[in-house]
Amino acid sequence: MRKTLLSFLLINVGLVVTLQSCRGDENITEPPVIADQSFVEEFDTLANAVAKGWVITNVSDPKGTGVWRQGGGTTAWFPPFSNKGSFAGFIGTDYTSTSAASGIISNWLISPLITMQNGDKISFYTRAYQFPVFDPSGVPTGDSTDYGNRLQVLINTANEGTAVGSGNTRGSFQPALDINHTYILSTLDPVNFSPYAFPSQWTRFVVTVSGLNQPKKGRFAFRYYIETGGSNAYGSGVAIDKVTYTSVNHK
Predict the structure, then answer these.
(1) Whole-angstrom Cα distance, residue 165 to residue 108?
(2) Are 174 and 159 in contact (CB under 8 A)?
(3) Backbone dihedral region for residue 131 (phi beyond 0: left; psi -120 to 50: alpha; all else: beta)
(4) What is the CATH code of the structural domain delimited by 37-246?
């Protein structure tokens, strides 16, 4: 009799727990499904990129005439990494971003607004614009240099804006990648060559979005940033091609 009563009580306790658990299920909310944000930007035409929501802003101090341009200049600096039309199918900017012989270069290329999640990836190709090197008598040495370029990738999930201040400031954008922050000069000279200099050929870089507690709307940006750049200081120019944003839920 005692065993029968004990079994009955245990069964009823289990039933209560099960019922209570089921009652709680109706309050569980599934997280919203984030639409695939993936895209590829080839910069085959600058006008099309701007129409898609890309923002260009030069906040160098003092500000020069240099902006992000199709092919980098009036004529393309070199062939693009990839293109679907124009020979100048990439975007670039240079040391004329500042009007000073030695000033602060801070020239921004900001992405359209997207919803970011941990694990999303930003990949792109970049390379430096090279100048020939001459000896003291003005004869080309066969070497080339970029005078020490630098490019940052930054992410802003604090708000949906594009404000970046001026000079050394960066608004709500936080650094995610800093290429050549020590301004190592690129050279073909095997004695002085450094693999840590800004690449002189198209090179792929990848940034992974992390640190978010939930999906957030925001933007990523490329910043041509040189603290002492200009016509008599660091910097020649940098180019960007085939920017790919891949959502973690991309299929």
Answers:
(1) 11
(2) no
(3) beta
(4) 2.60.120.200
Task: Indicate the domain borders of the chain.
Answer: 37-246
- How many angstroms separate the CA atoms of 221 and 239, rounded? 14
pLDDT interval class at 188 (50, 70, 90): confident
- Taking the C-alpha atoms of residue 107 and residue 224, their distance in angstroms, rounded to an integer, is 5
Distance (Å, whole) CA 122 – CA 218: 13
Reported residue count of the chain is: 251
At 31 the pLDDT is 64
Q: In the predicted model, is pLDDT for residue 22 greater than 60?
A: no
Tell me the whole-structure pTM to 2 decimals: 0.86
Q: Which residue in 81, 147, 155 sits closest to 116, CA to CA?
A: 155
Is it the case that residue 9 has pLDDT exceeding 70? no
- DSSP H/E element including 13: helix 2-25
228 Cβ neighbours under 8 A, 6+ residues apart: 102, 103, 104, 234
8 Å CB contact between 108 and 59: yes
